[in-house]
Amino acid sequence: MDVDDLVSEDYVSVLTKAAKENDFDTFVFRQERVYADKASTGRNDAVLFETISKTEELERFFANPTKLGVYNILCSRRFLTANGIIFPVGYKYYEDYRFLYTVFALSSKILSSDAVLYYYLLQDGSAMARFSADRINCLEIIEELSPFIKENAPEFSEHFDKWAVSRLRWSVLWQGAMA
Hints:
The structure is a single chain. Strands 1, 2, 3, 4 and 5 form a five-stranded mixed β-sheet that branches. About 45% of the residues lie in helices and about 15% in strands. It has eight helices and five strands.
């Protein structure tokens, strides 16, 4: 969790309920991107859980990567340890994408909820709103994922090879042009 972001009033209770009542490798919940003056962190009425396939989650992540982050998933320690999943070190950008693609490709049980539990606060001038040449150097962290995806999520592999790296390259170019 980022120090400047917010969570819903029932964040801990929903995560606890998900963990106690369900067996999963990864639990995915919603987040909203809001400005601080518009943030409302109420409670979720009825929290429903559904199991989805890793291909479905990979597709959701690919379709809108800004809707998913390391801040709106909960992974089982057993799952992370058994698969040797660690957060990549030494990168300023896209290490979260690498982590998420790895987690989703290896998860056999993904639990999902539409409950909004996390509020990502948008701030003008933040590090994520600025362009840095480091973004270009960090593309390698995603480019190197292709063989891993092919082995662990073959049904998503062709889609990943064709679009995932291209999408990030386009994003970096767009950010550079905007800067």
